[in-house]
Amino acid sequence: MSLPEDKKYMQRAIQLAEYGRGYVSPNPLVGCVLVKNGEIIGEGWHRKYGENHAEVNAIESVTDKSQIPGCTAYVTLEPCAHFGNTPPCANRLVEEKVKKVIIGHRDPNPKVNGGGIKILKEAGIEVEVGVLEEECQYQNRVFLTNMELDRPFIVLKWAQTSDGFVARENFDSKWISNTLSRQQVHKLRSEIDAILVGYNTVYYDNPELTTRDWPGNNPVRVVLDPRNELKDKRLKIFNKKANTIIFNSSENLVDGNIHKIKLEDFDPSFVLERLFEAGIRSVLVEGGSITLGRWINTGEWDEAHVYISPVTFENGIPAPIIAGQGKLQKEKQIENDIVQFWINN
Ligand code: AOF
Ligand code: ZN
């Protein structure tokens, strides 16, 4: 049974884990809090892929190490049991003589999958699993989707007018959402591994697809070019600011930051399979309406972020419709825009 106190410390661990978003992929977000006699003595989170796990950072944050034996560790994810980039966290918790470990959710990674819990229990450590489990799982929805479905997590995003258009008839889509909304999209880009768009979006909008309005890493830019039309090197997606993958039907080629991958079939499931093989764990599908429509038709999406502006176009390219597939989870106001967050049923 979890006590209100346990939830409080787990909530703090979730908050710490969140600082890793955008920096730890393909790893999960993990936070850890060490508590002794009702006081937090150490805190840590997994900061960057390849570096220390959350538990080790929490242990190392304790100034007086003699306080560690007998403490309780709150970890959002089951401590690992394997030698990967770092040694197993479960062993470290045993060595440090932690008395109790409270875990948010089990790690489905086949290298862990209960193994961490087993190590702790065999060493006589009290273990509790499932405190704020849903919250911890929601925070790690990208990692859990990767582990369970062997595919990237897919977020759809578009901006539409209040009368339901994503662009004018001439494909001009400028000035639908406001500046703050566009900044929010850059934040979203900084948290994701890749942004995917179709050829028309590159041709008509010439987007750079970077996170220039938000601190953080640029995602990989992915363009679908089934008719091999993408030639003009002045287009911004060819600049050196990020890597670009171009799926085409004629060649495989690596030229600096530009990777061309030949595909026979541009069905979303094949595209996703190749991206997953390339190490991409989350994809933001940003347009245009044909590409988004294709993803919606196959049902291959997890979340959709829809920016609705008060602007009206009266006619133009219609916005995708997901109401039949998705459930509206929440709505947020960004100045005069409304953002809807949908999740796939
Ligand atoms: C933990 N604490 O903070 C994280 C864990 O490649 P490595 O060595 O970093 O291992 C990555 C795997 O370890 C990852 O897939 C997941 O199963 C687990 N991540 N475990 O105890 C952490 N980030
Ligand atoms: Zn670990």
Automatic annotation (TrEMBL):
Keyword Nuclease annotated: no
Domain CMP/dCMP-type deaminase residue range list: 4-128
InterPro entries: APOBEC/CMP_deaminase_Zn-bd (IPR016192), CMP_dCMP_dom (IPR002125), Cytidine_deaminase-like (IPR016193), DHFR-like_dom_sf (IPR024072), Eubact_RibD (IPR004794), RibDG_C (IPR002734), Riboflavin_Biosynth_HTPR (IPR050765)
UniProt catalytic activity: 5-amino-6-(5-phospho-D-ribitylamino)uracil + NADP(+) = 5-amino-6-(5-phospho-D-ribosylamino)uracil + NADPH + H(+); 2,5-diamino-6-hydroxy-4-(5-phosphoribosylamino)-pyrimidine + H2O + H(+) = 5-amino-6-(5-phospho-D-ribosylamino)uracil + NH4(+)
Cofactor: Zn(2+)
A UniProt-annotated Pfam family: dCMP_cyt_deam_1
Listed SUPFAM superfamilies: Cytidine deaminase-like, Dihydrofolate reductase-like
Key words, A-Z: Hydrolase, Metal-binding, Multifunctional enzyme, NADP, Oxidoreductase, Riboflavin biosynthesis, Zinc
EC number, as in UniProt: 3.5.4.26, 1.1.1.193
Molecular function GO labels: 5-amino-6-(5-phosphoribosylamino)uracil reductase activity; diaminohydroxyphosphoribosylaminopyrimidine deaminase activity
Pathway membership: Cofactor biosynthesis; riboflavin biosynthesis; 5-amino-6-(D-ribitylamino)uracil from GTP: step 3/4; Cofactor biosynthesis; riboflavin biosynthesis; 5-amino-6-(D-ribitylamino)uracil from GTP: step 2/4
Function: Converts 2,5-diamino-6-(ribosylamino)-4(3h)-pyrimidinone 5'-phosphate into 5-amino-6-(ribosylamino)-2,4(1h,3h)-pyrimidinedione 5'-phosphate.
Protein name according to UniProt: Riboflavin biosynthesis protein RibD
Organism phylogeny: Bacteria, Pseudomonadati, Bacteroidota, Cytophagia, Cytophagales
Name of encoding gene: ribD
